[in-house]
Amino acid sequence: MSLSATIHHRLPGFTLDAAFSAGPGVTALFGRSGAGKTTLVNAVAGLLRPDQARIDAGGAVLTDTARGIFLPPHQRRIGYVFQDARLFPHLSVSGNLEYGARFAPRAARPSRARYSEIVDMLGIGSLLDRRPGALSGGERQRVALGRAILSAPHLLLLDEPLAALDEARKAEILPYLERLRDLGLPILYVSHSASEIARLAGHVVMLDGGRVIAAGAAGDVLSDPATATALGQETGALLAGEIAAQDPDGLTRLSTPAGSVWVARPDLPVGAKLRLRILARDVMLATAAPEGISALNILAGKIERIDPAPDGSVLVRLRLGDDAAILSRITERSRRALDLEPGMPVHALLKSVSIAEIAPG
Ligand SMILES: Nc1ncnc2c1ncn2[C@@H]1O[C@H](COP(=O)(O)OP(=O)(O)OP(=O)(O)O)[C@@H](O)[C@H]1O
């Protein structure tokens, strides 16, 4: 199942002109406030009738303005979860879930076993008799996710599902979103948070001013300097790694396409796969292999490009081996002092490396 969309829509003072596709797993829609994310998601859901558009999902044409096709929202097989759960306050949790199931076409209506499986997956079994007013924000979102999944959708649209939650509730719900992702359904996930995206998304579509400015694998988009304006201090790259060894001094060696990286020991076995996030502001550069320095993680690479960053610093993109790229944010003064140019070999000193995600399995 996949989604492909080309949408052109004019609002007073704003034009959405975007084309993108999304396959199974999470595709993050990312961009600053006012970039057009909600307008785009509403067009996919059929809540907005675009001026010109073609939107296909799993072979079905949802919108094709050239042929006068516009399926109403309830016929699109799309589950939509908003920032605020929007549960029916007068129905119990089970009433809300059953309402979702009623939207599934007869042939796809969830069985009792499927219903229980989803209730268990979201950890809401003990809440079934309660009304939404008696649930925490995180619980309400889990019920809203359950209601959406039980409608047997071909596609899930999650519009900032964690935005209204505090950090503790966010941390509580993220593992459920990971399980949801692993169901293999395409999920379009609108978020402002680079760390959520680093944790959940396989693909990223970056919007700015109603246009797609970068799209592709999360690692490629997040290390694309074009995305720095939207990401600000959160600009940083992803690096895939696998636990290679647990050293006796408490550090763990990861093998990555860029070479070995050491992190404080995560409680995981050798062979476990991880996704590391390396913020551009945490990467220093040296033109010669540094000696007498306490930094553990020093990777050799080559400068691919140098771009001015919005805050007056510069972003240096380094290629590290065939399969990895990271960004370093340095001052223009340092760039000049080191005479950095594309093509130069350099050493990257990683001041900090965080684990963005532990791959399932
Ligand atoms: N019904 C409308 N009429 C006129 N302008 C609108 C309408 N809806 C949205 N806009 C404008 O379209 C632009 C995109 O809005 P949209 O809500 O899609 O952005 P967004 O990326 O989802 O923002 P946020 O992250 O703040 O939710 C904004 O400039 C907004 O003011």
How would you summarize this macromolecular structure in one to three sentences?
This is Molybdenum ABC transporter ATP-binding protein. The protein is of the alpha+beta class and about 350 residues long. About 20% of the residues lie in helices and about 35% in strands.
Main attributes?
ABC_transporter-like_ATP-bd; Rossmann fold; 21 strands; cell membrane; ATP-binding; ATP binding; molybdate ion transmembrane transporter activity; 361 residues; 5-stranded antiparallel β-sheet; binds adenosine-5'-triphosphate; 37% strand; 6-stranded mixed β-sheet; OB fold (Dihydrolipoamide Acetyltransferase, E2P); alpha+beta
Written overview of the protein:
With 361 residues, the protein is an alpha+beta fold. The chain has two domains: 3-231, 3-Layer(aba) Sandwich (Rossmann fold), CATH 3.40.50.300; 236-358, Beta Barrel (OB fold (Dihydrolipoamide Acetyltransferase, E2P)). Helices cover 22% and strands 37% of the residues. It is built from nine helices and 21 strands. It has helices at 37-45, 93-102, 112-121, 137-150, 167-181, 194-200, 218-222, 228-231, 332-338, and strands at residues 3-11, 14-22, 25-30, 52-57, 60-64, 69-70, 78-81, 155-159, 186-191, 203-208, 211-217, 236-246, 251-256, 259-264, 273-279, 283-286, 297-308, 314-319, 325-330, 345-350, 354-358. The strands form four sheets. The chain has a six-stranded mixed sheet with strand order 7-8-9-3-10-11, with helices on both faces. It has a five-stranded antiparallel sheet with strand order 2-1-4-5-6, covered by helices on one side. A hairpin with a 5-residue loop joins β18 (314-319) and β19 (325-330). α2 (93-102) runs parallel beside α4 and α4 (137-150) runs parallel beside α5 (167-181). The longest helix is centred in the middle third of the chain and has 15 residues, at 167-181. The two termini are 23 Å apart. Adenosine-5'-triphosphate binds at residues 11-12, 14, 31, 33-39.
